[in-house]
Write a structure and sequence with these properties.
The complex is a heterodimer.
Chain A (H helix, E strand, L loop, with lengths): L21 H28 L4 H5 L11 H11 L9 H32 L5 H10 L9 H10 L6 H5 L6 H12 L3 H9 L4 H12 L1 H16 L3 H6 L8 H8 L9 H31 L4
Chain B lengths: L3 E9 L5 E10 L4 E5 L6 H9 L6 E6 L2 E2 L5 H4 L1 E4 L11 H11 L4 H14 L15 H13 L5 E5 L7 H18 L2 E6 L2 H7 L2 E6 L2 E6 L1 H6 L4 H6 L6 E4 L8 E3 L7 E6 L4 E3 L12 E12 L3 E8 L2 E8 L9 E6 L5 E4 L6
Classes of the chains: A mainly alpha, B alpha+beta.
Magnesium ion binds next to helix 1 of chain B.
Subcellular location (chain B): Cell inner membrane
Membrane topology (chain B): Peripheral membrane protein
InterPro entries (chain B): AAA+_ATPase, ABC_transporter-like_ATP-bd, ABC_transporter-like_CS, ABC_transpr_MalK-like, ABC_transpr_MalK/UgpC-like, Mo/tungstate-bd_C_term_dom, NA-bd_OB-fold, P-loop_NTPase
């Protein structure tokens, strides 16, 4: 189909944006590079430290280039067990933290998408009551209700279990409200079209609502995974056994007040390993929400 | 395939708004019934009650002789075309059309056959792999139609399906919908606020006002014998000229034929007027004759509309082709006896 085009003819300069000049481009790049250096240098330096022996680290200044102990240090931390945290290998900590972060992220998303679905699309008695109930819990984050929650976990015998680590952090008013706002933007006609097309509540949820929420779910998953990964206070309370620790707790425990007691090279390795999974999640999920942002589905 | 019978149907919304106040309509099999009326008169509400998307507060709705008040939209076996099309944005055109069939457990090869033949009828074949956002407004409209047709339902329901299209496309689609409905022979209810769409599409025309049926019947019958001043001014464009009568008299008329005793309003359509200097034979057979002063001229090409001030009020007069008349001209206007309409003080035809 040859349709008349209303765009101006493409010229060699059509990529230039408003106000772009050579100096401007240089300035922009300089600022960006400076920013990257400021953010990236500490991470790089941690990596460098993780590849030197403890002796090198304790004898300043620390070299600016990676050392030759990469394989040894990482092998020792991942599988050998770290003395100050009861000989638990960092591999176990990574596994624990992954389970907890995934559990929290997935659990929160399931719970909140279902409650938002109920509140937006069903008319039942006490609907607004439940909505406000959820809304009010926004004012009660974990830290505020930590003692009663701890008591409940003790009574249920959930100390040192994944359930105990995950479940109290799952209830989420924020995510419920986010999904609610999104669901409210779905046109009523679409819901009715699905009803006429013979989709019951479950089919509507599975075939229409879930695919349309994909972008929101992806973005929320990233945020919640990192939220779960970086939890500190709750895992500290609810775990006693060293092999149930999360990586953030273990990292804290590894550091002693006396420098000589601290295996700094392993601390550096653990720090490096602790930031890998969140980065992976962001990089992998980014495809989903970037695409979602580019192609508007509605 | 099916009749639709509404008996004294009412709708009271939870807030207390009575949107439909007792409507009875019998739609024969294979007929296209158009509900027309101003915005807010309850057309959509009535249609949605037939669809089962809205509960019926009182009265009954029967499809194919079976009362369906208590059953949901799925079991009613209806298909609906929405004003904003309501296509599933994440599904390809093919899946949009197939979705309803899949939910009903139609076998896969049967779905494929039906989707493809419907796509062929609507010339959508090359679009089957696209998503709704990659389609133009007109194409989306066709997909929405396709989604309804592919199901082969007992009744089609349309809620202002053409109101988002530009005028030219709207005209084309109007013809196409009419032809499709004829050839498929599916009983249809079509809601619109556009009287032209209503006149051209309807087998049965139902004019609604404030939750009630003002008049129903064949479109041309309604045009020729509007039952009330409301219908007279709603059907036909420009609307009928309505002039008040005072005790059977009319000040501006030079001559006025015999008037029914209880008439309070006199009406005649712009296209039923004649403008001449000489009364000729018309005056003899008891035509209305009045004097009017032209205030504005609207030439449309095939015809021109004169906006005039007569002694009794403003009137519009249609003259064929182009006209030499201009604002300020005085002219005598005639309307034949049989083209005059009289309405009582309650607005009803007498
Ligand atoms: N869900 C609703 N709740 C309350 N009142 C409504 C609702 N839907 C429509 N109405 C009211 O009912 C009347 C008829 O509406 P509608 O059937 O949409 O009119 P139309 O389609 O003829 O423009 C209007 O006064 C409207 O405000
Ligand atoms: Mg409407």
């Amino acid at each position: 189909m040859a349709e008349p085009s209303t765009r101006p003819p493409a010229s060699g300069h059509d990529k230039l944006m408003i106000g772009q000049s050579a100096a401007g481009i240089w300035l922009a790049h300089a600022v960006l590079i400076l920013g990257i250096l400021i953010v990236a240098f500490p991470i790089y330096y941690t990596f460098v430290a993780s590849t030197h022996s403890l002796q090198t680290i304790l004898r300043p200044p620390l070299p600016l280039l990676p050392g030759d102990r990469f394989v040894e240090n990482y092998w020792e931390a991942l599988f050998g067990g770290v003395g100050r945290i009861g000989g638990v290998p960092v591999g176990t900590l990574l596994l624990n933290t992954t389970i907890v972060a995934l559990g929290i992220a997935v659990g929160k998303i399931i719970i909140s998408i279902l409650s938002a679905y109920a509140i937006v699309f069903f008319r039942f008695r006490g609907r607004m009551f439940f909505f406000w109930l959820i809304f009010i819990t926004l004012m009660l984050p974990v830290e505020v209700r930590i003692l009663p929650t701890y008591k409940v976990m003790v009574d249920l015998g959930l100390i040192d279990t994944y359930t105990g680590l995950i479940v109290p952090l799952i209830a989420s008013a924020t995510a419920t409200l986010l999904f609610r706002q999104f669901f409210l933007t779905i046109p009523g006609e679409l819901v009715e079209a699905a009803r006429v097309d013979g989709a019951g509540p479950w089919r509507f949820f599975k075939d229409i609502l879930l695919p349309l929420s994909r972008t929101n779910i992806a973005a929320l998953f990233v945020i919640l995974f990192i939220y779960g990964w970086t939890q500190y206070l709750w895992p500290l309370l609810v775990t006693n056994r060293n092999d149930m620790n999360t990586i953030v707790i273990a990292l804290k425990k590894m550091i002693s007040f006396a420098d000589a007691d601290t295996e700094w090279h392993l601390v550096m390795v653990t720090s490096m390993l602790a930031i890998v999974p969140p980065i992976l999640v962001v990089v992998l999920m980014q495809r989903w929400f970037v695409r979602g942002l580019v192609e508007t589905e509605k | 395939m099916a009749t639709v019978d509404l008996k004294d149907v009412r709708k009271v919304y939870p807030g207390g708004v009575e949107a439909v106040k007792g409507v009875s309509i019998a739609i024969p099999d294979k007929a296209l019934c158009v509900l027309v009326g101003p915005s807010g008169c309850g057309k959509s509400t009535l249609l949605r009650m037939i669809a089962g998307l809205e509960t019926i507060s009182a009265g009954s709705c029967a499809i194919d002789g079976k009362v369906v008040n208590a059953i949901g939209p799925t079991e009613r076996d209806i298909a609906m075309v929405f004003q904003n099309y309501a296509l599933y944005p994440h599904m390809k055109v093919y899946d949009n059309m197939a979705y309803g069939l899949r939910n009903r457990g139609t076998p896969k090869d049967e779905i494929d056959r039906r989707v493809r033949s419907t796509a062929k009828t609507l010339e959508l074949e090359h679009l089957l792999e696209r998503r709704p956002r990659e389609l133009s407004g007109g194409q989306r409209q066709r997909v929405a139609m396709g989604r309804a047709i592919v199901r082969n339902p007992k009744v089609f329901l349309f809620d202002e399906p053409l109101s988002n299209l530009d005028a030219k496309l709207r005209g084309q689609m109007r013809v196409e919908i009419k032809n499709l409905q004829r050839s498929l022979g599916v009983t249809s209810v079509y809601v619109t606020h556009d009287q032209l769409e209503a006149m051209t599409l309807a087998d049965v025309l139902v004019v609604m006002n404030a939750g009630l049926v003002e008049q129903s019947g064949a479109p041309l019958d309604i045009y020729e014998k509007p039952a009330s001043t409301f219908v007279a001014s709603f059907i036909g464009a420009p609307p009928m000229n309505l002039l008040p009568l005072r005790s059977g008299q009319f000040e501006g008329a030079v001559t006025l034929p015999a008037v029914p005793g209880n008439a309070a309003t006199l009406g005649f359509r712009p296209e039923d007027c004649e403008v001449r200097v000489e009364a000729g034979g018309i005056a003899a057979d008891g035509a209305l004759r009045l004097l009017a002063r032209v205030e504005g001229v609207e030439p449309v090409g095939a015809e021109s509309f004169l906006y005039c001030q007569a002694a009794g009020g403003r009137i519009v007069v249609r003259v064929p082709g182009r006209t030499e008349l201009q604002a300020g001209d005085q002219l005598p206007v005639f309307a034949r006896r049989e083209k005059l309409h009289f309405f009582g003080s309650d607005g009803k035809r007498v």
